[in-house]
Amino acid sequence: MNAIEVRNLKFKYKDYRKDSEAWYEPVFLGLDLVVGCGEHMMIMGKAESGKTTLCRILTGSVPKYLGGKLEGSVAINGKDLSVTQTWDLVNDVAIVAQNSEEQLVCSSVEDEAAFPLQMMGQQRDKMVHSVDAALSQFGLESRRLQSVESLSGGEKKRLLLAVTKAIGPGICLLDETFDELDQTYKSILADWIRSTDRTVLLLCSRPLEICRGIFDSFGILEDGVIRSCTEEQAFETRLSSLPPFATDLSQAGAITARDLEIAKGGEFHLMVPSFELRRGEVVALSGANGSGKSSFARALSGLDDVLKGQFSLEKKQRPVEIGYLFQNPDFQIFLTTVRDELEYPNAKGKDIDGTCSLFGLNPDGIASILSYPERKKLQAAVYYLLDRPYYILDEMESALEYEDCHRIIGLLRRHGAGVLIITHDSRIAAWASRRYVIEDCVMKEASDEH
Amino acid sequence: MNIDSFVERPSILSRLDSRLKLILLLELCALVFLPLKTAAIAGLAAALSLFAASQTGFKRASKVFGSVLPVILIMLVLSPLTERAGDPLLVLGGTVVLTRQALDSLLRIGSRFLILTFGFSLLIQTTRQGDLVEALVCFGLSYKASLTVSLILRFLPSLSHAFSQISESHLLRQSKAGRRRKIGETIPSLISALVFALRQIPLSAMALEQRGFGGSVKPSRFHKLPGFGSSVWVLAAFTAAAAAFCLLFWK
Fold first, then answer.
1. Which listed residue, A355, A376, A416, B86, has the most CB atoms within 10 A of its CB?
2. Can you tell me the distance from the alpha carbon of A422 to that of A401, in angstroms, rounded to the nearest whole number?
């Protein structure tokens, strides 16, 4: 018996914009996938190739909740999903979703980890042991009583990993799970995949060096089907050497900050002795999950106050000078269609169709049902039209390919904008001319050997 | 009503039994609707606001107050118009603008609103989700119904968080610095938060089912409430204090 067995899967989403039976272009066109018990498989796929849809189909959540027409057969540990309810698969398969916000259901970290175990009717002693071990492995032991809302993006992903570890399902579906994790937890996840005897299916759009040597089989999801390949082919397909961005200081101006102190509850106290972002340069910022990168970005863009310190621009001026792309695009996309979104708050003089073409978007697409990478692109397109002199891109690479990230940064700095990229990906950080790191609660400029 | 997530902060309320807190909340709700003197209800509202600040921090308490302030302001504007009868307190150009009864009514309704808001907020902010579920089960609700109630309460702060993020996103799209936002401009943020909430429905349902919610297995309990023990004395003391308060300030 195979852990995952998908035969001749055809799937398309329903187009709710139209009254009659209307469908979007098919996502899968006769997809076959067989993953043996204990096998570790990595599937590479471009943005919008259907990776998240495949994960949701494998847990029985699609088409049940998001509509669509599914043909073919899908079986998990021999259970036919056409006659099995999602809740009956909790022991068989667990998913770590690409967008962590979608999957968190409880208020505290500890409750989140314990929730599925309660639903499985596990004995309390066993539950306590599983929760302790899982939270400890993913570094959340000290945060166990805290609110889920207080966690950073990377910490939320670690919590989902801890929940999966606590459940201990036969199959783990990891949807772009390495994104948003810092180097320490990328290594911990890689070690866990290497050592576990459970079936692991990782779906990703960017290959990370840390993933080399930990998977048994590889596939490429393209044109609605999966074709098997070797490890080298999987990595080569998605890797390309993209040049660093040249600094162009022809536009005068810089935003600077001195002697900042930023605090968030009792979670951290970040010191920033000196920071500078000049127009025309690309600067990277890295640091561990929860070290204060997003809090710094919020303070820099004038959304939050700092305890101490000075900025070269006044607080009320910063939101209109700095285009801050949040880590989660859902908080920056709120209108019906892509066109509406790009026209807000003022359509005057905006080349909407040209912008859509540059960012690979359909102007009539429904914004709320775009895929996660498409929402990221739309978020960037909105700020492209606002044409700010400075940008902060908060982990924009999540779910995007290197080429897309590089192209979007290039587009945003077309008029000489200064760009601060917050990233955990060293390849992306290498595109910057300078780099800041947060270590031991202090943000400082990294030397070349960093 | 503004409800925020659990606040991990040592406080008197966070140490109290969740069942006791539920009973105290019910007593408080009953107390504010008794025919007590207006000054007493207003005093209780002020005392509860200060108590909330001491339990969850000044910032959170002011956030709760800020969320009900618009409603209180609307009352402030409308009460003189709707309550016309009574002793005139303020007369402009021969027209009665404010009567003693209107002021009394405004204070009474505003204070009740504030007490209820702070009461519920304190319960949620000082009680862990699991303990709240156990307390509801103790009062006869089924486990699944209790869980559903607690999940709803968990999603309200998420929506409040989403609304503030969306408002910030709108702010970041402004073209002129420091422009004061008009009230009408909050409508796009409200609609966006509504769209966000609607989008969360299938996603939350998916997440719950993926965690095993809805199955036929009888759920086990992670949280275990201790014996009611000394809570009986706290309950007795609060009830006695409430009764004395009623006797002293009965209208």
1. A376
2. 16
